[in-house]
Each structure stands twice: as structure tokens, then as C-alpha cells.
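Usage example:
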Amino acid sequence: MSLLTLNGFSVTRRKREILRGIDLRVGPGELVGILGPNGAGKTTLMRAALGLIDARGHSSLASLNPRERGRAVAWMPQSREIAWPVDVETLVMLGRTPHLGPGQRPSDADHAAVERALQRMGLTGYRARTATRLSGGEQARVLIARALAQEAPLLMADEPTAGLDPAHQIATMRTFAALAGEGHSVIVSLHDLGLAARHCTRLIVIDRGKIAADGPPLDVLTPDLVRDTFGISAFLQVTPDGLVFQPLEVLG
Amino acid sequence: MTRLALLLTALVGVLFITALLVGPADIGPLQSLTALVAGDEGPMTLVMREIRLPRALLGLLIGGSLGLAGAAMQGYLRNPLADPGLIGVSGSAALGAVLAIQTGVAAGFALGLPLAALGGALIGMFLVLVLAGPRGSSLTLILAGIAISALAGAFTSLVLNLSPNPFAANEIVFWMMGSLADRSMTHVWIALPLIVLGAALLLSLSRGLDALTLGEDAAEAMGVRLSRLRLTLIFGTAAVVGASTAVAGAIGFVGLVVPHLLRPFVGARPGRLLWASGLGGAAMLLAADIAVRVILPTRDLKLGVVTALIGAPLFLHLIFRTRRDGM
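Running the assembly step on the lines above writes:
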């Protein structure tokens, strides 16, 4: 079973080819980290795979109708927009939108899904707080909870850990790993290679619009790839505490 | 039904009945209502059915339209400063009406003015649709709306500027202030179908507007069809605002202030704000139209002037509150 399949996938915007020839298949139970330097095309890849921007080639998600897609994948964009001062519970309930028919009120099942999402993100004490008055990191967690409440088989998140404190970065990655353990899959774009190395089951490195590497963290983060793609040197070792990756120097 | 819905409905009911009881004809409350309901072909029934009833009905319909359209526009643009006039429909409806007055069509036959205004609204809406494109962000819609508003405003000024007839110019200026005085049931029948249609379209946006709280990308990924939502918003707003402007002239501030005022009472949810603002808008306009008749019964005080006089200070108050909250 595949949750996302891309075949011969290319994106051209304003006559500039941003992605070309991407082939990709994500099955259940994976925690996939999308890595790459600024401007490599990580966000474009995810948005195009969702069908939010035009692309050539095949994407299994983009070919669904909007409602089916809302049940197949939850998407957390990079811009953490909360337009109105709604309370946290209301905001998280928005994740249930694809499950509700026109004019239908949230059922017990929807409330239970919201409850699970709040619990996973440690937000049960926040439910009545006004979302716009929370700190940036807290808002990020609320928005992750919103995406979790959608309870789709696949979760895609664009830099979900940016702006979180270390404890919440780790907790968020563990939450994603737990989802993967339950048979869901999660695709996250990350800039923190250490976090990616430690928690993801699979890393995909995007460089100049192409997949530069795809595989388990230890196989992907080779000194050559880290040098060629990111222009840095790094320390990588399997320790009793798991895989440790630490960027060291910028290479001239 | 929530407490807020009950409260607003009761308020609108009381104001509607009050609006029926206020007027220069000296009739007791009980008498007027009996004359309205029973009807005995006498002058009192005539006053009630042909003068006060259409006026109260139009206050209800137009106030509701402006409140609803304002809430929908603010929800779509995710901006509390948006108002229903933003997409240029009221400006182009006003231009249609002004042309009708200037050319004498309005004086020629009774429905000339509202029909010309509706024509203007239709052309304005069509131009905004063409300019903004079938797909695209909310920004292109604002820009198209501003462009059409500005253009319609410029042409309106041009007509006034070149008007050889001072009486026509005077009439235009007064019409543009907005009023519900001297409207008949015919005006109600012109506006009603469009307002019902437009309100149904706008109320159907509830869930999509809620989802837009998270931004366009997230909403679209949750199954909201943004291009359809935008088309529905444009058609719905054009129908209610076009019809309202056509029969009552330009009435400002209702669509801007009412959603802003009621937002805290619906937990800031854009979907619930739709019906709340509809009721609130109806209450505000009915109250303003009662004020027009009570404060200066002998002078023809214009409704749009009163809504601006009430609306602007309310708006200032809201600005101060927003500043205090550190937003």
C-alpha cells in the first residue's frame, strides 16, 4: 500500500524549473524527513504533491478530489497563520473539516479526535486559551494538533519544529514517530539535520530540484553528501544513545 | 439556539415593531398594528401597508444584507477592516443610479433608478470577476475591487462635475447619502429575491470561512475549494449589496462595524459570525432608521449620515480596544 506516489514529477514556475524528474513512494509506517538547503525545493515538492500548485507528472494525492484528499493527507504549511482570536479547541476542531458534511455538527467521534490530538501535543490545559495570544512555539504546537486531529493516514508538515524549544522539538518528533509506529506516515521538512538523523526512519535530500539521496539516515548523511549538498562538514556516529549528527564547519 | 441568537432575534423583533410604529402620521401603537394586520381600506391601513411596512422591511433586509456581506468579506480576506463595498459593487451600483438621475430616466419611470443601479452593480461585478480572474488569491480580488470602486467613483464625480442641472446634482448628492424614506412595496419586491439568493449563497460559506482561519493553503488542503468559495462570495455579495444600494443608496459602516462588534460574542468564528452579523446589521439599520425619524422628524435626515455618525465613533472605540489588547 502506498500513501504517496510521485512519478516523473516536475514543477516549473515562472519559466524556472524548480523540481524535475522526481520519483517517490511513501508507504505506511514511515517517518520521512525532507532535507535540503534553502531554496532546494522542499516546500514546492510538498505543495505540488498535494496539488496546491500545478505540476507535470503523476501525484497520487493531487489526483484525488479535494474532499477525499482532505481525508488522505493532513497538511501543515510553513506559514503559521491563525487569522482570528479563536480558542485552541475550536482551532484544533478545524482539522475535522474534511470529515464533516455540509451543515453537519461535530460528532462524538470528532470531539474524541480533537481530544487525542490535544493530548498528544500536551495541550489539554490550553483548550480554552485564545490561540492568537499564545507564544509562537505554543501556536506551532496548536497547529500541529490541528493537523493531527485530521487523523489522515499521511501527515505532511513544513518545518513543524521551527521555533520550538528543544524539549518540544524532541516531543514533536516522538509524536510523529509514534504515529508512524501506528501505521500512519509522516513527511516533514527539516533544517535540523541532527533531529532528522535521530528520529526519522528515512531521509530524502533535495538539492537543486532533484533527489540527491533517499534512504535510512545512516546511509544518506555521508560526508560526501553533506559536503556537496550543504557545504558543511559534520560528525556522524552511531552511539549507544542512537544516531548522533552534529554539523561542524562551513566548507569554503 | 444559542443565547446570542435569541437575544439578537428578540432585538430585531422589537426594533422592527418599533419601526412600524414611528412616523409623522399620529396613530397609536395598537391602532397601527390593527390597521396593518386587519386592514379596512382606510387611510391608516394605507399608511401602514404602503409606507411604514416597506420601510421597516427594507431596514430589516438591507441591514441584514450589509451585516452578512461584511462578515463574509472580513472572513474571506481575514481582515477586520474589510467591508462589503470593497469589491466595487456598491460604487458601480451608485454610478448606475447617478446616471439614471442625470439622464432623467429616474424621473421618467419609478423603477428607472433601482434598475439602473442593479445594472451598474452587475457590470461592476462582471468587471471585478474578469480583472480578478477565475483563480487567484484574495489579494487580486481586493485590487480588482479597489480599481473598480475608484473608477466608478471617478465617473460619479465626473457626472456631478459636468452636470448642467443643479437640481439633478443636488438630487444625486442626497441620493448617495442613503435613505429608506418614501420607498414602496415595489422596492421590497425588487430587492427581496436578490437578497434572499445572495444571503443563501453567503451563509453556505460558513465552513469554508472557518477553515480559512488557518490560511488559504491549509484550507485548500482540507478540501475547501477556494476558487468556488471566492466565486460564491462575489456573487452573494454582489446580489445583496447591489440590491441594497439599488433601493436605498449607499449606506456605510454597517458592514464594517457590526461584524467587528459581534466577533467576540461568537468566539471569533467566521462561520458563526455570518448569521450573527446579519441579525446585528438588521438591528443597527432599523435602529438608525428609527433615529432618523425621531431626532429630526421635520427634516429629511439621511440614513447613511446617521449610520456613519454612529459607526465612526464605534469604530474608533474598537481601534482603541484593539490597541489596548496589543494586537
